[in-house]
Design goal:
By secondary structure, the chain is of the alpha/beta class. Helix content is 39%, strand content 16%. It contains eleven helices and nine strands. The strands form two sheets. The protein has a six-stranded parallel beta sheet with strand order 3-2-1-7-8-9, sandwiched between helices. The chain has a three-stranded antiparallel beta sheet with strand order 5-4-6, covered by helices on one side. A hairpin with a 6-residue loop joins strand 4 and strand 5. Helix 2 packs across helix 11 and helix 7 packs parallel to helix 11. The chain binds zinc ion. The site of zinc ion has 7 residues, from loops.
Amino acid sequence: MALSDPTFERRVASTPASDPQTRAEALTIAARALRAAEYVCVLTGAGTSAESGIPTFRDALTGHWAQFSPQELATPEAFAAEPDRVWSWYAARRAAIVAAQPNAAHTALTLLASRVSHFSLVTQNVDDLHHRAGSRDVIALHGSLMRGRCSAGCAGTVELTEVAARRVPTCATCGARLRPDVVWFGEPLPAAEFEQARNAAVACDVFVSVGTSNVVEPAASLPWLAASHGATVIVVNATMQGQRKGPSILPIEGPAAVMLPRLVEEAFAGRRARQRGPAAE
Ligand SMILES: [Zn+2]
C-alpha cells in the first residue's frame, strides 16, 4: 500500500518530524493505513520498554558497571574469561525487568493485534514485557534475558527465576555453565527468527517500527525491506534523527508509550475486534 498524498509527502520531506501539524497528519494517514491493512508487522526496540523503566543496553552500564564497556560484558570471549562477572551483570538486568511493568505501548500492541486479520510482532528487546502485556508468538531476534541455555550447546533452555544469582549455574544435563540466552556481540541473530521476521516484512502491507533507531543491522533492514515490497512504513520513535526518509515512510516523533496508543486509538476507536486468521509464516 503506497501513500497517496503528494502534499503530505512534500511536507514530510521539507519540515521536521517534530512539527505538530506534520505529526498530526502522519498520525491520520498512519491510522488510515492501519484500518485498511490486512497484515501488520511491528518491530519493537529499546524505546518501547523505556517508559517501563528498563534501561537500554548502554544506559544499563551505570554505577559499578560504568567502568566496563559492552565488549567486556556481552561477548562470548568475556563470558569465557570471567563468567561470574558477566552472569551477575545479566542477573542485575533481569532483576530490573522483574520489577518493571508493561507500559501503554505494550498494551496498545495487544489491542492492534486484535484489530487486524494478520499480525506479526518482532522484537529486539530481551525483556518479557510484550509477553506479560498479553502478546503471543513474539519473534524475539535477540533472545531472552529470562532464559539461560547450556554454553556447551545442549538442546533446550532454562527459565531463569533466580534473579539475584551471583554465580553461574550449571547445565542439568552436562554440567557445563549456563549462559544467558541472548545474542552477544559477534554472534549472528537466530536464523529461524530472522527468517520469520523477513517473511513478515515482505508479506505485510503496513510495517510499524517502534522505539528503535533502525541503525543496528541486520534488524535495521526490515522496515526498508517492507517498504521495497510496497508496505507503508510507520516509524514511531523519540527522535527521527538517523531514520531514513522516503515517500512510504510516516514519521511519528514522540515516546512510544504516548504515540502508539494515540495511533491505535485513532485507527480503531469505536470499532470492534476482527476475527483473526493465522499469521503468515
Ligand atoms: Zn549442557
